[in-house]
Structures are given as C-alpha cells and as structure tokens.
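[Discussion] Sanity-checking designs against the backbone

I'm trying to build intuition for which residues belong where. Below is a structure token string of 265 positions. I'd appreciate it if someone posts a full sequence so I can compare it with mine line by line.
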C-alpha cells in the first residue's frame, strides 16, 4: 500500500476519526495569528494540508493560503467543504516535501505532525528556509494524542504483534522522535519558541474507537495483511469487552496542540 493510496483511502474518514474539531481549529488559529503577528497581508503555506482542518479558519478570515498534498482525495475534501474555492486559497496536488515555489514566497510555513513523513527531513527544512521571507515564521506543530486513545491503540498493537511484527519493519523515513528540528534550525540561526496553543478534552466510546480501527483509519493499519488484521480485530473486540466491561464505556482524556515557532535571528 503506497503512501498515496493510504491517504486517498482515509480522506473520507479523516476528520471524524481524529480529535481536532472546527472549534479547536479556530482557537488554534487565534494563537497562530498572535504568534506570527499577522497582518491582513500575511501569507501562509501548509505542506501536507490534508483535509484542511488547520488552514480553513485562515482561509475564512481572508488570509492568503497555499496548501500542498500528495493525496488528491484529501484536497477534494477541502474543495467540498468550501465549494467554490475562494481566490485566497491555492491547492496543489504534489509531493509536499518538494516545494515548487521561488525563494522567499511565504511569511509563514506551517507543518502539523507531517515532517516525519518526508524522505529527507533535513532537505525539507532547507526548503522551508528557502521559501520563507526574511523574518518569516516556521511553525512546526502536532496534535498530542489523548492518553486514553493512545492506550487503546497500544492494546491493539500489542495484539497485532502476536501475529506479525509489521511495526518493526524498516521505516521509509525517520520517526517523529528521531527528528531534531530545533538543533538543525539553530545551525541556520533560527530561534525557537514553544507553546501549547490549545488543550481540550476528547471523549469517545470504546465502540467508536473500535470502529475507527475496523475502517483502517490509521497508517499502521495498512501495513498488515487482511487476514492478520481481521484475526487481530476479532481478538481485540473480545479484549475490549473484558477490559472495559462494555463497548458503550466512554474514554475521556485531554489532547494538546503544540507549536514550536522558529524565526530567523
């Protein structure tokens, strides 16, 4: 299963199987605009724009926004949300790790939990540095998985490991923990500012979370054969009944939206 097909497959599921909401996105946008001291002319780029969750509030507020994604299906979801696409939004179906722009094109580049997906993160950071205007901002952000959901996923991966070890296969790119953005950008004379843009509570029933896995809404689900995946899911459902008592049990915990803001010294 290629990256392209994986993202195309989950596009229709993406928004409802994650924990970012439109309300949260609006609050995060308020924080972003404050961080970058935005003016009406501030321009934004998001490589790996996905279904547009992070940039739609910017678009609706009139800012110039460009989004790139390797998945045409993801971009189509943005088009369905806006329909028609406003003049201040440009969408490109391209490899987000190769930025097809001239030097000093954008005031702000935003990436949200995507830098670990590129083939060479150092080259990617060089590209971000190249397309940023002088005194521009690179915002490297991520949604922190709510602990209850992370624990739930961990139980499923533990069951999968009994059948196969798909998660130990050689990765195509670095993992999130292996990427030291701050050290690399400090060598380029960038200074960093860390902040939590938003904290909020996420609640799902066990049944809902189980359904997300059945739909293969997450990347690791596509690195497993259908036979093994089905067997593991059957065992996992029994485990959930035993562990949580009922599929209607609600799991709640806090999520965070973290931002590392980098600016040239």
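Best answer:
Here's mine. Compare freely.
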């Amino acid at each position: 299963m290629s990256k392209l097909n994986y993202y195309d497959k989950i596009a229709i599921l993406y928004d409802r199987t994650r924990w970012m909401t439109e309300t949260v996105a609006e609050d995060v946008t308020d924080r972003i605009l404050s961080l970058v001291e935005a003016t009406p002319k501030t321009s934004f780029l998001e490589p790996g724009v996905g279904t547009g969750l992070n940039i739609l509030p910017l678009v609706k507020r009139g800012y110039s926004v460009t989004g790139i994604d390797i998945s045409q299906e993801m971009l189509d979801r943005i088009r369905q949300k806006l329909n028609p696409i406003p003049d201040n939004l440009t969408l490109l179906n391209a490899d987000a790790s190769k930025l097809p722009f001239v030097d000093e094109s954008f005031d702000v580049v935003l990436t949200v939990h995507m830098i670990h997906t590129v083939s060479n993160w150092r080259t990617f950071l060089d590209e971000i540095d190249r397309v940023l205007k002088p005194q521009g901002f690179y915002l490297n952000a991520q949604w922190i998985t709510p602990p209850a959901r992370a624990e739930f996923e961990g139980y499923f991966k533990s069951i999968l490991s009994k059948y196969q070890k798909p998660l130990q296969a050689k990765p195509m790119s670095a993992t999130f923990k292996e990427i030291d953005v701050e050290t690399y950008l400090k060598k380029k004379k960038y200074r960093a500012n860390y902040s939590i843009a938003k904290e909020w509570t996420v609640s799902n029933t066990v049944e809902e979370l189980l359904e997300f896995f059945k739909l293969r809404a997450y990347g690791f689900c596509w690195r497993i054969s259908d036979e093994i995946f089905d067997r593991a899911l059957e065992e996992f459902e029994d485990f959930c009944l035993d562990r949580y008592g009922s599929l209607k049990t609600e799991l709640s915990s806090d999520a965070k939206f973290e931002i590392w803001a980098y600016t040239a010294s």
